[in-house]
Amino acid sequence: MSEKTAAEKTTGVFPWLLMLLMSSVTFVGILSELMPSGVLPQMMADLKISEAQGGNLVGYYAIASAIFAIPLVSLTMQFNRKTLLLILLGGFAVSNIVAGFLDSYGLIIFLRVIGGICAGVMWPMIAAYGMRLVSEQAHGKAIAVIMAGNTLGISLGMPLMTYIGNDFGWRIAFIALGGAILVIALLSVFALPSTPGEKLAPTSSPLALFKIPSVLIILLLTLLGVVAHYGVYVYITSLVDEIRLAGGIERALLLFGAGSLISVLLAIKYTDEHLRLLTIAMFAFLIISMTVFLLFGRTSGIAHFAFFLWGLSFGPLVTLLQAAVSRQVETAKDVATSVQSSAFNLSIMVATSAAGLLLGLYSPMSLLYLAIALAVPGLLISFFAKKALGH
Question: Locate the Major facilitator superfamily (MFS) profile domain: which residues (predicted)?
Fold first, then answer.
């Protein structure tokens, strides 16, 4: 660990610039995963692929992240954290830039899998890396700042990438993202401290973690929270069309993003002291917003406010769950967060499948009932999980 970092941990000064640089990594990380969603029509036309094949560009990426996260994080535990992050950023950059020049759907899928593997290692390791650069009292704050990039990537980055794709073509969007990743990697070479890896002990192995009741509670909260949120979010366009929202999807995403940004800022300030209260509030706001959609979804103004409330709930989702699971272990926090990250990705796949089935049978409003049905037990578990989440 560098002298500067050691001084920061001793004096308690929070290294904002380092954390913001790490936040930019999660910003481009989520864009790398979701990019095809924003430029899907152009890719379908250019590559002559179906909508299902287009969906696989995101699906295979997520599957690779979920499958490879735990084993690869365990295998790379002894790697220098800075070196590993630079390798992963290189993988992200290459997988996006090269895809922008290819005409072969099969090769692009292969590159998407490579990107997914890099993501499976990056998401858990970046949080653990950040925690090693601050005092223990600031772990939650570090995770909140780093994972803010994920929320901002969804709410601000995706509309930007979609704009670039619409105006300049999907290939330019992919290449531009890859170029941005290379810039972040270059900054990381000079700015981030070199931090050694650590040995994986039997007590901190993935299997050992599954024997800790508090970890299992957090994984259950991950499943409930992610499926509830993403079951609706994946089909947000269908919801907007169903309730005939004034201003359409653009207005919905703007209000959702505003709520997300506010809740991320609150998470940065309060996660360390009030993790349990914030988790309860996250589920509560989700229940309230979904209920408002059901009761007043077609009432202009009230429906718009519901999207803002939903954003308040959605914003700190990743931050709170990763902060919670990292509290359960003293060492090998990368492994703990990799288990949670895998559960997160698998939950997104469950959400997409379950919501797709409901949407095929009923109206988009049925997704709101699914979200409430999952969020209510999530709220109750959070209320009573004082050992896992704190008082």
Answer: 17-390
- Burial (CB count <10 Å: 0-12, 13-18, 19+), residue 224: buried
Answer whether 0.85 is exceeded by the pTM. no
Q: How far apart are CA 332 and CA 206, in angstroms?
A: 10
pLDDT tens-digit series, residues 256-306: 988 988 998 898 888 888 889 999 999 999 999 999 999 988 888 899 999
C-alpha triplet 87, 91, 94: angle, nearest 5°: 130
Provide the token pair at 185: 């990697």
Q: How far apart are CA 144 and CA 264, in angstroms?
A: 7
CATH architecture of 200-391: Up-down Bundle (1.20)
Q: Is residue 200 within 8 Å of residue 331, measured between CB atoms?
A: no
- 235: tokens are 């089909």
Same fold, 1-199 and 200-391: yes
1-199 CATH, one of 2.60.40.1510, 3.40.50.300, 1.20.1250.20, 3.30.70.640:
1.20.1250.20
Written as six digits, the tokens of 73 are 């994080």
